[in-house]
Amino acid sequence: MTTIFLDIETLPTNNKSAISAIYDRIKVPSNYSRQESIDKWMLENRENEFQKLFRKTALDGLYGRILSIAWAMDDGNVNCLESGQEGGEKELLEHFFLRLDDNRDKYGNFTRIAKWVGHRVIDFDLRFIWQRCVINGVKPLVEIPINARPWDDNIFDTKLAWSGNSSQYQGKSSLDALCLGMDMDGKGDIDGSKVYDYWLDGRIDEIVEYNKQDVEKTRALYKKMNFME
Predict the structure, then answer these.
(1) Secondary structure (DSSP) of 152-171
(2) Phi/psi of residue 6, each to 5°?
(3) Fewer Cβ close by (within 10 Å): the C or N end of the chain?
(4) Which pLDDT score, from 0 to 100, does residue 172 have?
(5) Which domains does the chain have, with CATH numbers?
(6) Rounded Cα–Cα distance for residues 13 and 54 (Å)
(7) DSSP for residue 119
């Protein structure tokens, strides 16, 4: 049985209807009544307000899309698949599951994934992957534990493991904060909020490297939290 360490990077929507709806949602503050003031506010603020709402769709599996998926099996090398600037998300998902379905031991036997590990993997990565599979009509070749609970044995979320799932004191729990606090290297110059800008600039290789580094960090955190080193 295998443990998989997983992380995804996502982009805002490219759905024209969704983009148009975002523009339509932008309204002037209620205290503006004169048409001249309304027009001036729209001219000065509409694009900034649109960008805020548009970029948030990268966190919504209904509209956002997966740019890259990085993963590692047990102590193996980190792999990464990316859709590139042409937006081949369906092919990305198909290839990803083919790779997982080809997970074999040294005797050639299929090795079942016993545990999925990631940072926010329960409430983001796994759910987002499943949602995009539904949107793209890609049937997963392995079971995705989208309904797993934090205490289930087949999943380990490093964020929840550290901070818990209550409204009480949790402390810092971002991947970068945990790495720095545990004397591991931080995440460097790029973070999730910059992925779209890097993509616009064609800096796919840097995003892939960032994605792979997150898997390495998560694996190191998992081992430390489970006293495996």
Answers:
(1) -TTEEEHHHHHH-SSSS---
(2) -135, 145
(3) C
(4) 75
(5) 2-16+57-225 (3.30.420.10)
(6) 7
(7) S
pTM value is 0.91
DSSP 110: B
Beta carbons within 10 angstroms of residue 91's beta carbon: 15
Q: How far is the C-alpha of 80 from the C-alpha of 5, rounded, in Å? A: 12
Q: Among residues 200, 164, 158, 161, which one has the least CA distance to residue 176?
A: 158
By the 8 A CB rule, do 184 and 216 touch? Answer: no
Contact (CB, 8 A) for 93 and 48: no
DSSP 34: S
pLDDT at 199: 95
170-183 per-residue burial string, b: 16 or more CB within 10 A, e: under 16: eeebbbbebbeeee
Distance CA 91, CA 83 (A): 8
DSSP 197: H
Q: Residue 1's pLDDT is what? A: 79
Quickly tell me which residue has 């992957």 as its tokens.
129
